[in-house]
Amino acid sequence: MIVLGASEALSQQTEVASPDAKSQSSLAEQLAAKAAGFAETAPPQLRQAFSKGVDIVRATGIEQSAKQVGDMAVDAKLVGWDGKMVQLSDMWKESPIVLMWYRGGWCPYCNIQLNAMQRSLNEIEGAGAKLVVLTPELPEKAKETAEANNLGIVALHDEKNAVADDYGILFDLPKPILPIYRDKLKMGTYNGHSKMELPLSATYVIDQSGKITYAFLDADYKNRAEPAEVIAAVKTVSGN
After folding, report:
1. Exposed, middle or buried by CB within 10 Å (0-12, 13-18, 19+), for 37?
2. How far is it, in rounded angstroms, from Cα 196 to Cα 129?
3. If we measure between CA atoms, which residue out of 172, 101, 89, 109 comes closest to residue 137?
């Protein structure tokens, strides 16, 4: 795992306040609980396949080769599930943005993260940033994901993972887990194409000049950027 930039973000560990009971535990704790449940119930062969898959992705060096703190962000024009077009540079020129990828509504870890970010949305915006969520799944699937999780977040469609590729966070699914995503999870029906690729569940903070000031990159899909750290990273950029 690589988390870079906004050193104040890494030292701030205060929990984001919310009346929701889940907000009493960190995102990391919620994800760990989900992983523990899987470890207890999944067949050993399945656990080993996923573990091997993470090792293979990490061995590619993707965490180091992806866009890092200090790099310039990549611009793109994308459509949300609401049908509206968004130019990323227009958004970051107005205010810093939190740019976050989720893999798809089929991913329970992504849904946990989306819910955590939804609960933190007021704090993110109060810190002076906009949350921008990208996903390879089709707009209609992203809408289903939002509705299933009672989200107010409009995800932008990263068609065929083009933007993820530009950020260097795109990887081919390793052979040990490829059949699971292709045949069991039916990832192709979510993404609208047959390429078996996924982005890291990366999170960036981008300032108004288009520079990356915070980067969370982890080859392990079970690990995600903690909302409190993201909010602290935003504050170092916005001055709030």
Report:
1. exposed
2. 33
3. 101
Query: Which of 66, 104, 100, 107 minimizes the C-alpha distance to 229?
Result: 100
CA-CA distance, 36 to 111, in Å (whole number)?
A: 16
Q: What is the pLDDT of residue 37?
A: 96
Structure token digits, residue 54: 């993470």
Token pair 């390429």: residue = 195
Both structure tokens of 141: 């699937």
Helix extents (H) in the chain: 7-11, 27-41, 44-59, 62-65, 88-94, 108-119, 121-126, 139-148, 162-167, 178-179, 187-191, 227-238
Per-residue pLDDT band for 19 (boundaries 50, 70, 90) equals very low
pLDDT, position 22: 53
Q: CB of 134 within 8 A of CB of 154?
A: no
Please give the pLDDT value at position 230. 97
Q: What are the tens digits of pLDDT across the range 132-144?
A: 999 999 999 999 9
Return all residues near 163 (Cβ < 8 A) that are at least 6 apart: 74, 76, 78, 134
Query: What phi-psi label fits residue 211: left (phi over 0), alpha (psi between -120 and 50 degrees) or beta?
Result: beta
Q: How far apart are CA 154 and CA 40, in angstroms?
A: 34
Looking at residue 218, its amino acid is D
The per-residue pLDDT for range 74-128, each reduced to its tens digit, is 999 999 999 999 999 999 999 999 999 999 999 999 999 999 999 999 999 999 9
With 0-12 / 13-18 / 19 or more C-beta atoms within 10 angstroms meaning exposed / middle / buried, residue 233 is buried
Backbone φ and ψ for 3, nearest 5 degrees, come out as -125, 115
| Token pair belonging to 194 | 């047959």
- What rounded mean pLDDT belongs to the chain? 91
